[in-house]
Each structure stands twice: as structure tokens, then as C-alpha cells.
Amino acid sequence: MGGRWPGLPPLPPLPLLLPLLLPLLLSGSGSGSGSWEASGEVPEGPDGLFAAGVAAYARRDWASVVLYMERALRAQAALRALRLRCRGACAARHPWPPPDPPPDAPGTPEPPPALRDLRFFGPVLGRAACLRRCLGPSAKQLQPLAEQLDLEFQKRSPYNYLQVAYFKINKLSRAVAAAYTFFVGNPEHVEMRQNLDYYRTMAGVEESDFKDLEAKPHMHEFRLGVRFYSEEQPEEAIPHLEAALREYFVADEECRTLCEGPYDYEGYNYLDYNADLLQAITDHYIQVLNCKQNCVIELASHPSREKPFEDFLPSHFNYLQFAYYNTGNYTQAIECAKTYLLFFPNDEVMQQNLAYYTAVLGEEQAGPIEPRESARAYRERSLMEKELLFFTYDAFGIPFVDPDTWTPEEVIPKRLQEKRKVERETAERISQEIGNLMKEIETLVEEKTKESVDVSMLVREGGPLLYDGIEVAMNSKSLNGSQRVVMDGVISAEECRELQRLTNAAATAGDGYRGRTSPHTPSETFYGVTVFKALKLGQEGRVPMQSARLYYNVTEKVRRVMESYFRLDTSLYFSYSHLVCRTAIEEAQAERTDSSHPVHVDNCILNAEALVCVKEPPAYTFRDYSAILYLNGDFDGGNFYFTELDAKTVTAEVQPQCGRAVGFSSGEENPHGVKAVTRGQRCAIALWFTLDPRHSERDRVQADDLVKMLFGPDAEEVDLSREAAGQGQPAPPEPLAGPRAGDKDEL
């Protein structure tokens, strides 16, 4: 194992962290060290143990790193478990008093007002005393970790240290598990990705070693269930989705319980805070309620995703209703559909599904079926909390951001509704003004940047093609231009056929052109599908998932080849991707003189008469490279061609065929067009790339997220699902629906 092992966490950052940790080391203990040693429950605090582990890492004392970091993780888990156990036990032992009976209830005298207060605060004091006894003499030390240390645990930093230490002491399986656990929580960490790739090449490392030691049970089960669902295995999906629901409610109760901690003064100095009794109670209680509402976000979050799953809990019932339908269990399908409608009563698709299930099962059997009580109770409690939070927002100005989209409008006070409407309109106006200003600035910056980039483009090409079977058929010299290439063998004949079948099965007339089926010529029709839409259709079982996944992988393959061949120093990002077929309209070909797509330039507005190309909106000025991958050649016409700036002088022409790709820079050096397709159907994948990540295609980001969700972080290695389900079934859930693309150029 010669050479530097990749990913060793560097020592220079350690001095930045050590000043925060040294006081803990010098004191000889972390939080809670004394009484925990006596009780045996939590031997030492996680902060002190983590500090000791960091110091051991600085000394390269690998055995001590393992000892302290593992104990820090166990101590953190033990503290959490202790809080949960004590708060749960004390709540059960000292319940809140039952509500007072109505004044007109027979035989029950109304208690005096003073007794009402005492009856309420009696259990409060009892519960507080119970907690003190349960937590022990060191209850005061059970405070949250310092912000910096808490962040280290949230970032799973102990596993970063552990993976190095385990590697150094030759415990590979544990090193792999620690590395993978850290990577799941930090998916953008380049060095850890390299480490994992390195581990996969080592003898003795098994695939089962790559496991997330911090996986949340409810999220793990949910992702498994969705994966089986997407692979059209409803019988396998159901137990995982049901388990996910059970684990979700457990995790929700735990999260809510942990919210009942000390008051966060949020910028106040403790000594300056002088609220009276009722205000202090209000401040603390509303802070707790806010925390409990935010459990929705915490439970719907996964480290591999930028944003939480939207409508996470209701989506379980959405998946389940359709999975139960596919297994013929209409009783459970109706129960889950009705449960989903608790949250979204006006959802037309679910209403149609419920009507269908009811018609099959019969009204007599379907009518008595009720929504699940656990979901009903959850919704009722959540709405009561929201009412209180919106009231305090309206009355005291204490902010509340509702994490749910299903909250009925009537829960929000009317005055607050108007206020939020005005604030939203103002924010949108300001955002639009800032956006317009930023676009102007970006355009100026891009123009300056491109002046230097365009010069380097003239000579930087001819890099490796990365994949076996790909050959350069024509380069810039043979194409009579600059930054041009034609490659053959990019995909196989079978892959071409499969992608053509996908187009005909999935494409929507005019998709990508706002419904216009002949955006460039009235003599042809256009049908297209984006990557994200294809994956969504695969998820819904309307096209083969393996075909949608092939589409996704092929576009990534072309991106990598373009990046390598043109020897780019920075990455290419997808600006737009479109699998499109253009078909000749037979009766419209007589005396035809137009092109399938007139000559144009991809990132500027071509003025052929003046021999200039103006780089300003509405042109896609951020496009830097373009590519088109052909899927067939069995049609007449449709050749791709380059011209001079006059749009008339043809400098090169390319005849499409399966597996052939044309790549070129998107600037004024490469005007191009497509000759008329006079017979048959011409299919291709059109791709545009940008060097600026700010202009990454949103559709592609959603596609990446969907692939990660369906197939896991190592999505490239996951096998694909089987053929689509039958027709005429109720619509499946769409928890990740995204916006349609706007008008786009085509090659």
C-alpha cells in the first residue's frame, strides 16, 4: 500500500478546533462525568470524549482515537436515551389533570379559580421533581452540547476520525462502515468518495461493509419501500412502508419529547431577560411547540437530499393505497386513501381512486372503513398546535413557519392571512427586482469571462474518450472549424432501439415546446421527453424503468466524454437535455424548401446579414457546449450541418446514424442547422452544457435526487426495474412532481 492513502483528514484544521476542546480536557471530564461513573449509565460526557479523541488524532494515537470516539458516540446516544426514558416515565407518572367538566354538568360543582391553577401546577411540579430524581445529581449538566460540538456530531465528524483510525489499525470492515456513514451524511465530500472507491479495490472488503451506522429506521424502511414500489413489487413494498409508518410515529414522539428542554434565550443575555410569569411561560411553551412542529422537517430529511421530502407522512399513505390496490387488497387501499384525504381532502386523483376502490368492493363494505386512527390523532394534535402558534404569531409577533402544505387556511387568523399575503407579494416583487439586477450583472461577468475562455477553446481538444468502442470519426480539422467533433460507437444498436422505444412510449407531443408539436417547421411533428419526466414515468410504472435509467446514464456518459475530449479544466453541467423525435408529415413534403431547424447559434442571436451574433437574452448565453446523440438513420434527409456566420456557406455536414454523436462549442464559431426530414422519423438526444453551476438545469437536479432516492447513493451500480404495469389503473402517487420545461432549441 505504497503512496499516500487518499482522504486522510488533514492535521492543519485541528488547532482551530482544539481551543474549544482543551478546557474540557484540562478539566478532566466532559459533561456529566462524576455522577454517571457512579450510576454506570453514562460513564462520561460526549463532549469530553470527543475532545479526547481529537487530541489523540493529533498525536496519531490511533487506538485512543477509536476508544474515545466510539465512547463519545455511545455517550451521546446514552444521554439521548436517558432524556427520553426520564421524560416519558415522569409524564406517565404525573399526567396533566383532566379538563374541568362543563358548568351545567349535573352533580359536579365547579372548582374555584384558585384551585384550577393549583390543580394544573401540581403535576407540573411533580413532573419536574420526577425528572430531577430520574436524571440524578448531574441533571444540571445534561444541557445541550456547545453549538460547535453539537454541529460536529450532526455532521457525523466522529466517523471521519474513526475511518482513518480503523484503517491505521487494519480493521477494514469497521473503517469502511465508518467512512460510508460519514459519506451518507456528507455526500459532497470528495475525499471520502475517493476513500470509498479505494476501499472497494481492497481485498477482504465486502459489499455488506458499506452500511450507514446512523440510519434512521423510519427513513431506511421508507426508502426500501419506495424502491420496491418503483420496481413494481407491491407485495415487497407494503411491509417496508408499513414499518416506516410505525417507526415514523415512534421517531415523532421521541423528537417531540426531546423538544422539552431548557429555554433558548436566542440572543438575550440571561440576566437581561425579565419576562413576568405568564410571558415567560408563553415564551418557553411556544418555543417548545415550534420545535415539535419542526419535527416534521427533521423526520423528512435525509443527508443525501438538499431538501426534506415534501408531505412526507401523507406520502406513505399515497404509496400504500396504490400498493394495496395492486395486491388486490381493496379494504386496505380504501383505508389508506381515506387517510391520505384527511390531509388533502380536495385531491382529485385520490378521490377518483377512492371511488374506483369503493365501486369494486361495494359501498356496503367500503362505507364503514375509517381512516387510520394514528393519522387522525396526529393531524388533530398538529392542527391544535398550529392554531396556538399562529395565534401567538398574530398576537405577540413570535414567528412561525408552517412546515406542512396541508394546513387548512381556516386555521390561520384572517388578519395574519392578509399580512402574509402582503409580505409574500412584497417579497416576490423584491426578489424579481433583485433577480433582474443579478441577471444583468451575470451577463456582464459572463461576457468578460467568455472572452478569455473562447480563446483557449481554439486549441484544447483531442483528449481521451474514456469508454471502449468510441471512436473519433471527424475532428475540427476535417469538419472545417474549431471545437467540433463527430464520434461513433457511443451507444450500441440495442441501446438505440431501447431509447427509441422509450421515446415512442413516453414522449408527449410538443414536450419542451409548451405543447407546440411543430416548433420549427409545419412539415414535421416533434415529440420529446426530458430525463426527469422519463424517470417519473418509470417510477409510476408507465414506461420500463430500465429504459428511463438508460436515458439518464447515456446523458451522463456523453457529458463525461465531452468534458474529457475538449480537455476542460472545469466540470460541465447540464443546461438542458431532451430525447426528441421529429417525424415527417407525409402530405406536407411536396415542394418543401424549408429546413427541419434553421441555422442558429446556441448561445447568441445570429444576425446572418450583418455577420454577427449578439450574446444577450433571450439567447441562452450561459450555454458553453452542445451535443447530439443519434438513435437511428433509417429516414430521408435530416442531416446536421455547420455553416459560416452567413448561415449559407456550409462548412461540414454529418449524416445521422445509431450511436453517432456530434459535439461542439456553443458559441458563434459554430452556427448549425438541420436539413428537412422528408420521410420517416429522426430520433436523437439533444444536450446542452454550461461551465457555470449557477445555470445547472433544475430538471437534472430533480432527476439526480430521484435516482438517489430510488437506487441509493451508489446509484450507478443499482440494477433497474422491470416492465411497466398494465393500463387503466388508478394513478400512482407523485410525491416528487416538478415543473415543466419551457421552450428550448433543438439540434
UniProtKB/TrEMBL annotation:
PROSITE patterns in UniProt: FE2OG_OXY
GO molecular function, one term: iron ion binding
Signal peptide location: 1-32
Family: Belongs to the leprecan family.
TM segment ranges: none
Residues covered by the Fe2OG dioxygenase domain: 577-691
Reaction catalyzed: L-prolyl-[collagen] + 2-oxoglutarate + O2 = trans-3-hydroxy-L-prolyl-[collagen] + succinate + CO2
The protein's required cofactors: Fe cation; L-ascorbate
Enzyme Commission number(s): 1.14.11.7
Organism the protein comes from: Ornithorhynchus anatinus (Duckbill platypus)
Highest taxon above the source species: Eukaryota
Entry GO terms, CC: endoplasmic reticulum
Entry keyword set: Dioxygenase, Endoplasmic reticulum, Glycoprotein, Iron, Metal-binding, Oxidoreductase, Repeat, Signal, TPR repeat, Vitamin C
GO biological process: bone development; collagen fibril organization; collagen metabolic process; negative regulation of cell growth; negative regulation of post-translational protein modification; protein folding; protein stabilization; regulation of ossification
Enzyme class: oxidoreductase
Compositional bias (Pro residues): 95-113
Protein name: procollagen-proline 3-dioxygenase
Gene name of this polypeptide: P3H1
Renumbered residue ranges of the record's region Disordered: 94-113, 718-747
Classification via Gene3D superfamilies: q2cbj1_9rhob like domain, Tetratricopeptide repeat domain
InterPro entries the record matches: Leprecan_dom (IPR056585), Oxoglu/Fe-dep_dioxygenase_dom (IPR005123), P3H (IPR039575), Pro_4_hyd_alph (IPR006620), Pro_4_hyd_alph_FE2OG_OXY (IPR044862), TPR-like_helical_dom_sf (IPR011990)
